[in-house]
Design a protein that fits this description.
The chain is mainly α. It is built from 21 helices and no strands.
């Protein structure tokens, strides 16, 4: 879930009225049709511009009085959704806290001389995020009406997370080298976080107005990264200065979870949602998602698009093999994390537009170029050259910054598309399905690349070069010949290509 151009100006201010997202879309459609009808009688025809169903004509079709309108005030484009955006950001920050703690554990176990095999078993703790689609329909369809569709799951699971962090002495488990105990605890934490993620993703679809749903991706990318940064780097700094140990820090995180959850419980009112499928219909809907034409095109696009970025996973291992310490790589990664947090905000207006994949498309070739540069840096290290000079460190920093920047741009753009096209009637399930599909599209090429690096090592030539150069070349050719057009087609696909048959949200 850790992964730019200002394409259009800020939308002009619009008046806010208390209507549902579907009603807002209908009003926008009526307004557009009325304006088109009025302009059809004018002497000079307006330039035609393709618009989505709930969009209004853009600059070339603006009436003179609209073109001279004063710029929107800062934040006016949120149209009353500012509080909801801030709440989503906080919820995603909470989600990142256990992830940061999970990243700390292997480093602490390594200091205790725990074997790599045992530490490797701890990595299965993230499994719930890969299989959460299995219970997403239940989270989406089963709830207490008087409590709220999303709060019915959000509140109890966040309370459970807080209780685990408050009462389980993680530091003692590390001291005892209890890998099995730590693995069990973090499996439960990740299960709770994955369930919270389903609820928050679905809540974002109904909490935000139709034109601002794209901001959910900004909250997701920035919030999770910020939460990870606070717990991972925050603990490192506090522990290094002897201010807090692991148990004390995890309890501080638990207290934060508890206070925030109580605030959401008592202070945030959830809109009543009667457009809900039952569990069987949700599972049938999950299967039906596979047969939507746009979803099939998206799956194919994601699988091919992610291939060149296996270099981001393999190059650091080769840098370590060439003499670059893991502490150096970790320090640089931590140093660029604030940029990763800020990056989604840089493209917030673009990802909230009706064509969020434009950011993905414009960032694609630059990121492929970054992957090519990573191959060069790995080759420099593997060739026995100096890896401690300022020039080499400058190259490492430049690579890390660009990879973080373009990777986050593409992730936020991808998430914005998912939020825009997901069917609200099974919103949490739909979002989870698309996220699972994207995660698998990233993980499967990496797994294959790792195996091929060893298999293709022939005659002293590292298979890393064959795999990495081939992946980068494939990505560039795929984008030029097919990918750019495929992304444009997905952006322009009508909503009924994404929505389920007979969806009440169309």
């Amino acid at each position: 879930k850790l992964q730019f151009l200002y394409l259009i100006g800020p939308p002009k201010a619009r008046s806010t009225i208390a209507v549902s997202p579907d009603e807002a879309a209908d009003i926008a459609m009526e307004t557009r049709n009325r304006k088109v009808t009025e302009r059809s009688h004018s002497v000079e025809p307006a330039t035609s511009i393709a618009c989505d169903e709930a969009d209004t004509p853009r600059h070339a079709s603006l009436a003179p009085e609209e073109q001279t309108e004063a710029p929107a005030a800062p934040g006016a484009y949120l149209d009353g959704d500012l509080g909801s955006v801030l709440l989503l950001l906080v919820l995603y920050v909470l989600q990142g806290l256990p992830m940061g703690l999970a990243a700390v554990i292997p480093m602490l176990l390594k200091e205790k001389q725990v074997s790599m095999s045992d530490i490797g078993s701890f990595t299965i703790t993230s499994l719930p995020y890969s299989v959460k689609i299995l219970w997403a329909p239940i989270v989406d369809a089963v709830f207490f009406k008087n409590f709220g569709r999303r709060k019915s799951w959000l509140v109890p699971f966040q309370v459970l997370i807080s209780l685990i962090l408050l009462w389980v002495p993680l530091g003692d488990l590390v001291e005892a080298k209890d890998v099995a105990g730590l693995t069990s605890i973090f499996l439960v934490l990740y299960f709770c976080c994955a369930t919270q993620d389903i609820a928050v993703d679905g809540w974002a679809l109904s909490m935000l107005s139709a034109k601002n749903k794209g901001y959910a991706s900004t909250c997701n990318a920035a919030g999770q990264t910020c939460g990870f940064f606070l717990s991972f780097t925050g603990f490192m700094v506090l522990e290094d200065n002897k201010l807090l140990d692991l148990t004390q820090f995890s309890r501080a995180c638990g207290a934060t979870f508890l206070v925030t959850t109580l605030g959401v419980w008592f202070l945030k009112q959830e809109k009543r949602d009667d457009d809900v499928e039952d569990v069987k219909e949700s599972y049938r809907g999950m299967v039906a998602i596979l047969f939507r034409p746009a979803v099939r095109r998206l799956a194919l696009c994601l699988v091919f698009a992610k291939i060149p970025f296996v270099v981001a996973a393999t190059a650091p291992l080769k840098l370590q093999e060439g003499g670059v310490s893991k502490e150096t790589l970790a320090f640089i990664s931590t140093a660029v994390m604030p940029l990763t947090i800020a990056a989604p905000a840089m493209i917030a207006k673009q990802t909230a537009s009706e064509a969020p994949l434009r950011v993905f498309s414009y960032s694609y070739l630059p990121r492929v170029g970054v992957a090519a540069f990573a191959i060069y840096m790995a080759h420099h290290a593997l060739s026995g050259r100096d890896v401690h000079g300022w020039a080499f460190y400058g190259g490492l920093i430049a690579w890390s910054v660009c990879e973080a920047l373009f990777g986050t741009f593409m992730f936020a753009s991808q998430m914005a598309l998912f939020a825009r096209v997901s069917d609200p009637s099974i919103g949490g399930t739909y979002m989870t399905f698309l996220n699972t599909m994207a995660n698998l599209a990233s993980l499967l090429p990496i797994t294959a690349a790792m195996k091929l690096c060893d298999y293709l090592t022939i005659g002293g030539t590292d298979g890393f070069y064959f795999v990495s150069i081939g992946a980068v070349a494939f990505g560039a050719l795929w984008y030029i010949c097919y990918g750019r057009g495929a992304m444009l087609a997905l952006d322009n696909a009508p909503l009924h290509d994404w929505r389920l048959p007979n969806s009440r949200s169309d």
